[in-house]
């Protein structure tokens, strides 16, 4: 008679649990279910309006209580990231947005430099947390994927592409700057820093395709001010 360890091992070796395809289906279903169950989604409404406000030249970091709760804290370049989803009907855009984020994380997990069994375990293990994050349409799912990809690309010697992952995460939500912790693993540090500087310039200028340079530069200043206010508010709350 098999003990629990043997039963778990036998279960893990079944095709349903040791292949990527079933996991991909589960993650896709989770994304679609999260969209349908949580529509309309306040976070995604904010995301959509980052694009439309940039397109119309409206302030990005002021409240719009008649449209959504809370305020936007994403960088101007986020307007370009969310653009393909913002121009879709709201529900379709939300479904595609969540599928895109889940897909990006799925690709990142598959590229982890560990044995296949470990990658599959991670994918199954985080499925529930993924659904929770997708239910709130959090961009943190994509941030996690970008950080994983940055590390993987550094390990593979693709410093330029790794720099892009870090730059995108930083220019969108600032959290991506955590990826600079991988700098110590970079073999060609000069190439990495050059690529990071180059991608930063590209991402800084990219939203100018949607609006005027004066407007975009002004919104970068407003973004810095909004993040400072948010940080001060968080520090004040911690002291209470």
UniProtKB/TrEMBL annotation:
Q: State the UniProt keywords alphabetically.
A: Cell membrane, Membrane, Transferase, Transmembrane, Transmembrane helix
InterPro entries named among the record's database cross-references:
GT87
Q: How does it sit in the membrane?
A: Multi-pass membrane protein
The terms under GO molecular function for this entry are:
hexosyltransferase activity
Main location per UniProt?
A: membrane
Q: Where is this protein found?
A: Cell membrane
A GO cellular component entry from the record: plasma membrane
Q: Which Pfam families match?
A: GT87
- Residue stretches spanning the membrane: 20-39, 76-109, 130-154, 160-185, 192-210
Family of this protein: Belongs to the glycosyltransferase 87 family.
Q: What is this protein called?
A: DUF2029 domain-containing protein
According to its UniProt entry, this protein's organism is: Tannerella sp. oral taxon BU063 isolate Cell 1/3
């Amino acid at each position: 008679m098999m003990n629990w360890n043997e039963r778990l091992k036998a279960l893990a070796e079944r095709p349903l649990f040791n292949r990527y395809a079933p996991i991909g289906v589960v993650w896709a279903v989770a994304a679609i279910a999260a969209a349908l169950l949580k529509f309309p989604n306040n976070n995604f409404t904010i995301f959509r309006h980052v694009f439309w406000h940039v397109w119309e030249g409206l302030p990005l970091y002021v409240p719009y209580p008649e449209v959504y709760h809370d305020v936007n804290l994403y960088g101007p370049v986020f307007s370009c990231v969310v653009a393909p989803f913002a121009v879709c009907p709201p529900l379709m855009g939300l479904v595609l947005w969540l599928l895109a984020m889940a897909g990006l994380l799925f690709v990142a997990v598959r590229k982890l430099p560990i044995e296949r069994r470990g990658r599959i375990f991670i994918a199954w293990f985080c499925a529930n947390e993924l659904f929770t994050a997708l239910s709130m349409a959090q961009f943190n799912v994509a941030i996690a994927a970008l950080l994983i990809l940055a590390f993987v690309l550094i390990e593979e010697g693709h410093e330029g592409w790794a720099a892009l992952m870090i730059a995108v995460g930083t220019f969108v939500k600032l959290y991506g700057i955590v990826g600079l912790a991988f700098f110590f693993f970079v073999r060609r540090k000069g190439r990495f820093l050059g690529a990071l500087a180059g991608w930063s310039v590209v991402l800084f200028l990219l939203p100018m395709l949607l609006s005027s340079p004066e407007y975009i530069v002004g919104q970068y200043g407003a973004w810095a001010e909004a993040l400072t206010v948010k940080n001060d508010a968080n520090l004040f709350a911690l002291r209470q």
